[in-house]
């Protein structure tokens, strides 16, 4: 048996998972098994990488480039979504062993995302990329394996109430009321990316769409929920400008109109998602970013 390759774990991943994470301890063996299974050779680890997965650039036996991704959780759902999209607007899934968290993906240019473009151009390209992903979750209206927005957001309700500071309590209650109202009359059930932002859209090789989406945490629900994460992209830059509140509302209008999404529904989900993320950051000890997310929600 070949020894497990040496893998330098990105510090962002170690901080997010915790240095004593059992999954991190297993990663070298998981990498070795994946390399053996698909006859891959390692080039390098992608850094800084994500908080819930390790991505290793590899070569297949015939010399073609690929990317090996190992997820701590959620590999089954990502594999199912990528299979459903079948390379249309998203990275192509080449093979998968979701029981081990391993996905073999086509190689994109991880160093070139939409964040490398000016904001107006990036949002235009982001809207185009996102539009291609919004399809029924299964052909012909059949069953699907994906979590719904209603189920996913229900898990956050207690955390919002527990971790939003007292001074922001009215904002938290507004977010929860908006969630209930939006779910009560949801207009559609489409396959969503779930964590869509400019950094999740990477440059591809010639012969494919110029920009392709990666890293879904797929859900089933309405388009406004998916678009809401994009509204707060480049948040620190936005917060450093004068008139951040008016700029935020303008973003909502422009993004909603560009994708024919109801402005009020986009505003509502943007507010809810910012409050939910703010509560989660505060719970994890990241109070500065948590409070900035709550401030953003207040601009809406």
Automatic annotation (TrEMBL):
InterPro entries in UniProt: Kinase-like_dom_sf, NH2Glyco/OHUrea_AB-resist_kin
Top-level lineage group: Bacteria
Any one Pfam family match given in the protein's UniProt record, by short name: APH_6_hur
Record-given protein name: Aminoglycoside phosphotransferase family protein
Organism: Streptomyces macrosporus
């Amino acid at each position: 048996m070949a020894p497990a390759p040496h893998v330098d774990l990105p510090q962002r991943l170690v901080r997010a998972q915790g240095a004593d994470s059992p999954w991190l301890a297993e990663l070298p063996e998981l990498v070795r098994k994946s390399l053996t299974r698909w006859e891959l050779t390692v080039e390098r680890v992608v850094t800084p990488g994500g908080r819930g997965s390790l991505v290793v650039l590899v070569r297949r036996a015939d010399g073609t480039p690929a990317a090996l991704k190992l997820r701590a959780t959620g590999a089954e759902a990502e594999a199912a979504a990528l299979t459903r999209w079948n390379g249309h607007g998203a990275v192509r899934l080449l093979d998968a062993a979701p029981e081990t968290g391993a996905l073999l993906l086509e190689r994109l240019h991880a160093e070139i995302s939409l964040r490398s473009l000016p904001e107006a151009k990036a949002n235009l390209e982001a809207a185009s990329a996102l539009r291609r992903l919004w399809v029924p979750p299964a052909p012909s209206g059949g069953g699907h394996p994906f979590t719904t927005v209603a189920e996913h957001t229900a898990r956050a309700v207690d955390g919002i109430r527990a971790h939003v500071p007292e001074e922001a309590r009215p904002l938290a209650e507004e977010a929860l009321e908006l969630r209930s109202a939006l779910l009560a009359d949801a207009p559609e059930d489409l396959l969503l990316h779930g964590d869509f932002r400019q950094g999740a859209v990477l440059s591809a090789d010639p012969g494919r769409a110029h920009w392709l989406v990666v890293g879904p945490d797929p859900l089933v629900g309405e388009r406004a929920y998916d678009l809401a994460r994009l509204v707060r992209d480049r948040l620190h830059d936005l917060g450093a400008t004068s008139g951040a509140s008016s700029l935020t509302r303008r973003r909502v209008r422009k993004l909603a109109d560009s994708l024919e999404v109801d402005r009020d529904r986009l505003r509502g989900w943007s507010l809810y998602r910012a409050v939910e993320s703010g509560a989660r950051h505060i719970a994890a000890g990241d109070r500065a970013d948590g409070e900035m997310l709550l401030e953003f929600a207040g601009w809406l």
